[in-house]
Amino acid sequence: MSAILAVCGEAFCAMVSDGRLVEEPITGAAPNILSEDVPKVRKLNRNVLVGFAGDTLAAVQIIHALDEYDTRYLTLEKAVKVLCQRAPSVKVQPVGVRLLVGGRNRKGQFVLTTLGSAEQYIPQTQPARAGAYLIEGACSHTEIAPWLEREVKPQAAQWRSLDDVAHTLDGCIGKLAGQDHSVNTHYFRELVM
Fold first, then answer.
1. Poorest-confidence range of 39-53, 80-94, 145-159?
2. Distance between CA 80 and CA 177 in Å, rounded?
3. Could you tell me the CA-to-CA distances from 59 to 6, 32, 127, 132 in Å, in that order?
């Protein structure tokens, strides 16, 4: 149903998603494709990004809870709190939902928070550290950790620009799309600096 990848460093947070929406549950060899251009990453304001993978309808219902606020002024912490409050009331397909919230926290530090239906939406927040990158992702029908280890983390040492980061993340989603038919290569990107 989708793939989302995020990288946070000490001076930026970037997210890249694919655009495919498929009918769940997937039956047979090929999924029933409903749309090829659904953005799964959203820039709330100059400090906060939100992205998702999994049950698109449920994820959109959860994320729309943020629109009850003036998103221009939502802090990362408040966005996470709103998502955690809304998520349990939304019915989710067995594929589940994984949300990524990244950007600057109230203290101006870059952080990345993950939460999902599999963990009862208990948020896990990691701060960016000097000289290192937070690399996180989610994919509906493919275990993402091996892809991050194999395709993204080895290239991080060679990143010299945000274009390098985007190229790596696009490449990972491209390779995922080659094996997981619930993912395509229509990329959506957002950035907070």
1. 145-159
2. 29
3. 17, 19, 24, 29
